[in-house]
Each structure stands twice: as C-alpha cells, then as structure tokens.
Amino acid sequence: MTDLQTLLAQGPVTLDGSMSTPLEAWGEDTNSDLWTARALQDNPDLVYRVHQEYFEAGARIAITDSYQASLQAFSRHGLSEEQARALIRKSAAVA
User: Which of 14, 22, 49, 71 lies 20 to 30 Å from 55, alpha-carbon distance?
Assistant: First the structure.
C-alpha cells in the first residue's frame, strides 16, 4: 500500500484548516493579492507555527500555504521566477 492508502485505512483523516485566520490573529498582514502566501517570504516561521498547531490539535494532513502563490503573483511583487519557485517549494517544506 502507498502511504496515502495506509493513512486512509486508519480511518477518517483530519486536515489542517485556515491559514489566514491564525496568521492574522498573530499579527501577519494578509491584505495583498498574495494573501497568506506573503507570509512565506515575510514570516515562514509563523506559517510553520500555524501548521504545528493544527497537527497538535489532531490534523494528520497539511494543506500548503500556496493558495495565492504563483509565478505571476510573486512576479508582480518583484520576485524572479527562481525566487517564486523557491517560495512555492517552501510552502510544501514548511507544511
């Protein structure tokens, strides 16, 4: 069996939840077209903390902080394609 099949065979799987609500509660500004993906660049430790708290609450699968993360969006904020790709990869590594 694959890891996913093994996980699903253990019963219901709880996903982590919203990224924006906890980030905003901890002072992160999400008021941009990048929304929570902005925190990947500005405050990745806080993104990690959000994931960590969901896992501590029982989540077994993380949803990456990449909803608004795209090459085009990061480009509009002055990042190169290489930097944008690195941040998108970072969303998975942090999760």
Answer: 71
**94 and 48 Cβ atoms separated by less than 8 Å:** yes
27 is in which domain, residue-wise?
13-94
User: Terminal CA-to-CA distance of the chain, rounded, Å?
Assistant: 23
Let me know: does 33 contact 76? Beta carbons within 8 Å.
yes
For residue 9, give every residue at least 6 positions away whose Cβ sits within 8 Å of its Cβ, in sequence order, or none: 1
pLDDT digits (tens, 9 = 90+) for 5-51: 887 788 788 888 899 999 999 999 999 899 999 999 999 999 999 99
In a domain, 6, yes or no: no
Q: Does residue 75 fall inside a structural domain?
A: yes
